Amino acid sequence: MKKMLIVEDDDLSLSVMQRLFRDNYEIFVASSAEEFFENYKSNFFDIIIMDISLKGGKSGLDIIKEIKADKLYSGTPILCLTAHAHKQIKLNAIEAGTDYFLTKPVSNMVLMETVESLINTAVKEI
User: What are the backbone dihedrals phi and psi of residue 6, each rounded to the nearest 5 degrees, phi first?
Assistant: First the structure.
C-alpha cells in the first residue's frame, strides 16, 4: 500500500483527507513541524500533502525547502494545500519546491486526481 503523509493542523481538513484516502493509502499525519520530522526520517512516502500554516516554529514552506534539499527525499512529490490564496504565497511555494499548489476549499475529486497525477509522474531514483 502506498504511504501518504498529511501535514495539516486543521482537524476538519485532516478528517476529510483521511476519509478520502484511507482505502488506497497508509496515512500518517502531523500537525506541526516537530511531528513531521518524527514521521519523515523513519518512512519513505509516496506523497506528502503539506499545509503552509502549521503549529510550532516552522511553516510548511520551510519544511518543503528542507525536503527538496535532502537528496534522499527530494523526489517525493509534495502537494501544497492551503487556505492562503494570495499570488505571492503560491510563488513562494513554487520557489520552495512544491510540486503542485491548491487552495482550500478544493473539491474532493480535484484533490484525489491531483494526488494520483503527482504519484504517477513522480521520478523515483533507483
Answer: -105, 120
Q: Going by DSSP bridges, is the β-strand pair 2-7/25-30 parallel, antiparallel, or unpaired?
A: parallel
All cell numbers assigned to 11? 482537524
Cell of 42: 523513519
Q: What is the pLDDT of residues 62-105, one digit of tens each?
A: 999 999 998 888 889 999 999 988 899 999 999 999 999 999 99
C-alpha–C-alpha distance, residues 98 and 96, integer Å: 6
Rounded to an integer, what is the distance from CA 118 to the centroid of its chain? 11
CA distance 87 to 91: 6
Q: For the chain, which domains are there?
A: 2-121 (3.40.50.2300)
In this prediction the pTM is 0.92
**Cβ count within 10 A of residue 7:** 27
- Taking every pair of Cα atoms in the chain, the longest distance, rounded to a whole number of angstroms, is 37
Pull the grid cell for residue 70: 535532502
C-alpha cell, 90: 503560491
Q: How far is CA 8 from CA 71, 77, 88, 99, in A?
A: 24, 16, 21, 17
